[in-house]
Specification:
Elements: H1 2-6, E1 15-18, H2 28-45, E2 52-56, H3 74-80, E3 87-90, H4 95-103, E4 109-110, H5 114-118, H6 122-128, H7 164-168
Parallel strand pairs: 1-2, 2-3, 3-4
This protein binds flavin mononucleotide (FMN).
Length: 175
Amino acid sequence: MLEAVLEVWPSERVGVKTGPMMNELGLFKAVESTLPTTEYVYEKLNAYNLSHVFLMRQLADLSETPIAALAGDAVIHHFRKIYHGQLILNVGISREHATELVEAGLGDFVAFGRQYIANPDLVERIRLNAPLNEQRPEGYYGATAFGYTDYPFLNVKDLHAETEGASLSLRSGLE
Ligand SMILES: Cc1cc2nc3c(=O)[nH]c(=O)nc-3n(C[C@H](O)[C@H](O)[C@H](O)COP(=O)(O)O)c2cc1C
């Protein structure tokens, strides 16, 4: 599949999103044999000069599985050693955690999914260290605008005093 894409698209503009252990699908029995396969795939990806590999932490509870040791950030540490190109880290990562991960050299970028759905101005909020809107998971995967276009933009009055200076330059773009 990847090689078919690379026949028509320059490799440096192609990224691969990976879900290392497929545990979200409940394939726990397959997990033990899946890990060496996943390691093999990550090793092979080094040769393709890709834009990035998108590495996901696990959404599921791994504590009772054969890969309990890869829970949380352990999966990032594990595959960072195997894949040497640019990594985008994802799943359940906060602003502070993202900073720590990138500063530790464990990834090059961090992607935000659910926080972006809930905060139409997430970039500005991260820049200002502003509070985030509470997520409404019941709005995910819906067929209407509910949960897609009704989250509020930042109100600068909500900002802490210490971010006020930084907020001034952005005020015109915010409510
Ligand atoms: C409503 C919703 C739709 C999503 N749709 C996709 C999708 O189409 N393709 C995809 O690769 N990931 C999809 N994701 C997964 C996100 O890209 C991301 O991997 C996931 O939300 C975990 O990151 P987070 O903890 O920052 O939200 C979706 C997630 C949500 C909540």
